[in-house]
Amino acid sequence: MEKSKLVSFINRYYLAGNCEAVTLKETNGTVGCDLIDGDQTVVGKIQWKTKPFMTGALGINHTGALTKMLSAVGENINIDVQEAGGKNYAMKISEGSTKLTFMLADTSVIPAVPTINQEPDYKVSIDVNDEFINKFIKAKNALPDAKNFAVQVKNGQVKFIINYTTINADNISFEIGSNDSEEMEPICFSADKLKEVLTANKGDMGTLHISPDGLARIDFTGSDFESSYWLVQLQN
C-alpha cells in the first residue's frame, strides 16, 4: 500500500485535528468512514476506492497518534489487522524492518454520526476548483481569527464574506461570477472547517451547495476518493 494515499484518506476525515475518532468500514469493496467534529458543526462521509485491508470495522480513537506513527515509515507499507474473538484490536504496519503497532478502540466508544435523512432545497451551487480553494484559503489565512464566513446572493452575484458581522469589523469578501440563483441573505458557516475541508480535498473537483434553511453540502470526486461534507449554520 502507498502510505501517501492512506495519509490522504486520513486527512479527509481528520480535518487537521477536528475529528479524532472514526470507525473505518469495509463497504462495497472499498474502505469508508463517517465523521463528526467535536463541536458538531460538520459531518461527513469519505470513501476510499481501494481494496479493503481488513474485514469488519476498525475503531480509530486517536488519529493524531496514528499520523505521528506513520511518519516513521516510508512510502511502501504493509498493513496487517489483528483480530481476536471476532473483534479487530490492532493494526500492524510495516516497511522493511520498521514495524508499528497501533491499538484499535472498541467501535462502541466512537462517537455516533447522525444520518441526514432529508436534505433541504439547495438554492446556490458553485464549482469548487483550485481557483476557489486558493482564494478562500488565502482570505481565511489573512484573517486567522475569523470564525465564520457568509454566503450572500445579490443581483445575481454570489459573494463570500470572511468574518461576516452586522457591525463594523475587518472582513474580506470575493465574488464567484454571475449566478442565476435566487436572492439570499447572508448565511454563516464555520470558516475554519471549510478551510480544512478544502485543504484536505485539494486536487479533486467539487461542488458546494448552500441552503437558506441553514445547511451547506460540499461533494468532491477524484480518482481515489469520494467525499461529502455537511456544514451546519452558525448563528451570528
Descriptive notes:
The mean pLDDT is 95. The protein is α+β, with helices and mostly antiparallel strands. It is built from four helices and 15 strands.
Topology:
Elements: H1 3-14, E1 22-27, E2 30-36, E3 42-48, E4 57-60, H2 63-70, E5 78-84, E6 87-95, E7 98-103, E8 124-128, H3 130-142, E9 148-154, E10 157-162, E11 172-178, E12 184-190, H4 191-200, E13 205-211, E14 215-221, E15 225-232
Antiparallel strand pairs: 1-2, 1-4, 2-3, 3-15, 5-6, 6-7, 8-13, 9-10, 9-12, 10-11, 13-14, 14-15
Helix pairs in contact: 1-2, 3-4
Q: What is the gist of this entry?
A:
By secondary structure, this protein is α+β, with helices and mostly antiparallel strands.
How do the SSEs run, as a string of H and E?
A: HEEEEHEEEEHEEEEHEEE
So how many helices? 4
Distance between the termini: 45 Å
> How big is the Rg?
19 Å
Mean pLDDT: 95
Biggest sheet statistics: 8 strands, antiparallel
The helix fraction, in percent, is: 10-25%
Q: Structural class from helices and strands?
A: alpha+beta
Keywords, separated by commas or semicolons:
single chain; 236 residues; alpha+beta; four-stranded antiparallel β-sheet
